[in-house]
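Per your request, structure below.
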């Protein structure tokens, strides 16, 4: 269930949120573990990139998220998935969430759709026809054979908002990572249990892009709509979506 996700898309308020992050949130949040891993990501962020729209701060945010240091990405994703009610106040990662989301949107500015794969040792139950979202940033890959991440449940994903990180991650391009944002919505179109669809996967879900769902769009930037109320669909996509559960 991703009802408690911090799922801000910053549609219509990106510049306003950037100002708020630079003037308020980053100074407040740069402490303890986040401060340490942010500093450690400086060398990674200095690597050259072909995308001139990405700032050094964007690159550093990607390096932080993809770093294996103290499994920080798990701490961050747990907060993104569960701390909706703290967003705008005590949520500890407003700055990282914004820069990472902005980087993903810049890297896939043309909304190019990609087929990617995600593996896990966790068991999921989902039905064909359900609409679901991950509710946090989901690391996926263009590769099918990253068996070390699990074989219990696998996802074949058609993402249109996820971004190919190229050589930006800490591991460079070894895993051909595509990062899917928390607000991207998917339709389960197939569930395969034959073990033949993706190498060594017991259950494979086929997920097709189905738009977006955001409860908190621009909430922190504009202090609008209390977190207990859904903001509805994004006008940028001209559609309405129903958030269902993958449980």
């Amino acid at each position: 269930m991703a009802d408690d996700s911090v799922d801000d898309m910053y549609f219509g308020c990106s510049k306003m949120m950037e100002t708020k992050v630079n003037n308020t949130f980053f100074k407040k949040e740069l402490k303890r573990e986040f401060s340490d891993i942010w500093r450690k990501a400086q060398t990674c962020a200095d690597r050259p990139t072909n995308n001139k729209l990405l700032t050094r701060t964007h690159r550093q945010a990607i390096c932080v998220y993809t770093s294996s240091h103290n499994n920080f990405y798990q701490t961050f994703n747990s907060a993104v998935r569960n701390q909706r009610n703290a967003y705008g106040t005590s949520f500890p990662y407003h700055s990282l969430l914004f820069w990472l989301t902005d980087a993903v949107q810049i890297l896939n500015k043309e909304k190019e759709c990609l087929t990617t794969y995600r593996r896990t040792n966790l068991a999921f139950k989902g039905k064909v026809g359900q609409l679901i979202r991950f509710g946090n940033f989901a690391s996926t890959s263009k590769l099918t054979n990253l068996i070390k991440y699990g074989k219990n449940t696998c996802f074949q994903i058609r993402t249109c908002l996820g971004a190919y990180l190229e050589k930006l991650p800490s591991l460079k391009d070894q895993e051909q990572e595509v990062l899917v944002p928390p607000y991207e919505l998917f339709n389960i179109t197939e569930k395969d249990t034959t073990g033949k669809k993706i190498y060594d996967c017991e259950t494979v879900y086929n997920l097709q892009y189905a738009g977006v769902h955001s409860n908190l769009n621009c909430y922190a930037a504009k202090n609008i709509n209390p977190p207990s109320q859904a903001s509805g669909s994004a006008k940028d996509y001209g559609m309405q979506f129903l958030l269902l559960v993958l449980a």
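The beta strands are 114-120, 131-132, 138-141, 153-159, 163-164, 177-180, 184-192, 203-212.

Regards,
D.
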